[in-house]
């Protein structure tokens, strides 16, 4: 990691095992779950849940176990229980396709209602779930809690689903599902990760059945004029890794 980037980021270990750093001057904690915590704003952000991906594959005859929604919502519930946020922002592609809400079990919809109760619950539009969110808002029988927005300015941060070639200052985006590979214990280990240069942040996918794109792919690496920091998700801590050391 170059000296200028180290000075901007200055990551250090947070009690939760995450990394605390700043993005465009905004204090952020990168959580082991893949969620982003803004302590000064009591706001929890998660990206790319892809709820009902399993049932979408099953409907097409691919026998992917349809248990991803309960697993993903359990992880989100654990973060909410730990942090008690005032606001929760889901950064797009919360649902896997346009019919995901209609396939979702009533118990999981009720779980979403409970999680959202008493909080500002915000859905950002993603490329996968634009129709799903619009349809759910119009359906009186399977309504979603909260409100839907296209983008959101939050202090020094600008939240959007897809990272932009010419980003707003403090852009926080998802969509690309970044992952990185490092050598550990004599073998290669591949993990989802955050990617940041202190000016913008790309978040990992939060969903249980989501894949990942290597951070060295031009779709990710090309977003950063200088080598960024990769923050890999471990079991009980987030590992800051210099981009140059990735395999």
Record keyword descriptors for this entry.
globular; alpha/beta; ligase; ligase activity; Ligase-associated DNA damage response endonuclease PdeM; Calcineurin-like_PHP; 247 residues; 9-stranded mixed beta sheet; 8-stranded mixed beta sheet
Largest sheet: 9 strands, mixed
What's the total count of β strands?
A: 17
For the terminal residues, how far apart are their CA atoms?
Answer: 15 Å
Structural class: alpha/beta
Structure overview:
This protein is an alpha/beta fold. 23% of the residues lie in helices and 29% in strands. The chain has seven helices and 17 strands. Strands 9, 10, 11, 12, 13, 14, 15, 16 and 17 form a nine-stranded mixed β-sheet that branches. A hairpin with a 2-residue loop joins strand 2 and strand 3. Helix 3 runs parallel beside helix 5. The model has no long low-confidence stretch (mean pLDDT 86). This is Ligase-associated DNA damage response endonuclease PdeM. It comes from Brevundimonas olei. Pfam families: Metallophos. Keywords: Endonuclease, Hydrolase, Ligase, Nuclease. It is an enzyme of class 3 (hydrolase).
What's the arrangement of secondary structure elements?
Elements: H1 3-9, E1 12-13, E2 19-23, E3 26-30, E4 36-38, E5 43-46, H2 53-59, H3 68-83, E6 87-90, H4 100-103, H5 106-116, E7 120-124, H6 130-138, E8 147-149, E9 152-154, E10 157-159, E11 171-173, E12 178-184, E13 187-196, E14 201-202, E15 213-214, H7 218-221, E16 229-233, E17 238-242
Parallel strand pairs: 5-6, 6-7, 7-8, 10-11, 11-14, 12-15
Antiparallel strand pairs: 1-2, 2-3, 3-4, 4-5, 9-10, 12-13, 13-14, 13-16, 16-17
Helix pairs in contact: 3-5
InterPro entries: Calcineurin-like_PHP, Metallo-depent_PP-like, PdeM-like, Pesterase_MJ0037-like
Protein name: Ligase-associated DNA damage response endonuclease PdeM
EC number: 3.1.-.-
């Amino acid at each position: 990691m170059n000296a200028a980037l180290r000075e901007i980021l200055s990551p250090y270990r947070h009690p939760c095992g995450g990394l605390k750093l700043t993005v465009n001057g905004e204090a952020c904690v990168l959580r082991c779950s893949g969620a982003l915590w803004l302590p000064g704003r009591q706001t929890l952000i998660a990206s790319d849940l892809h709820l009902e991906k399993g049932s979408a594959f099953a409907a097409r005859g691919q026998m992917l176990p349809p248990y991803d929604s309960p697993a993903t919502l359990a992880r989100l519930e654990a973060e909410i229980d730990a942090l008690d946020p005032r606001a929760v922002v889901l950064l797009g592609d919360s649902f896997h396709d346009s019919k995901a809400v209609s396939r979702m079990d009533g118990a999981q919809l009720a779980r979403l209602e409970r999680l959202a109760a008493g909080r500002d619950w915000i859905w950002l539009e993603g490329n996968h779930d634009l129709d799903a969110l619009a349809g759910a808002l119009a359906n009186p029988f399977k309504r979603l809690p909260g409100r839907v927005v296209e983008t959101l300015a939050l202090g020094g941060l600008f939240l959007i689903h897809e990272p932009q070639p010419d980003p707003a200052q403090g852009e926080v985006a998802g969509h690309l599902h970044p992952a990185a590979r490092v050598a550990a214990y004599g073998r290669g280990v591949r993990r989802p990760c955050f990617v940041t240069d202190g000016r913008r942040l790309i978040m990992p996918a939060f969903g249980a059945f989501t894949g990942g794109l290597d951070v060295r792919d031009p779709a990710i690496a090309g977003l950063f004029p200088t080598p960024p920091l990769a923050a890999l998700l471990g079991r009980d801590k987030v590992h800051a890794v210099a981009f140059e050391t990735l395999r």
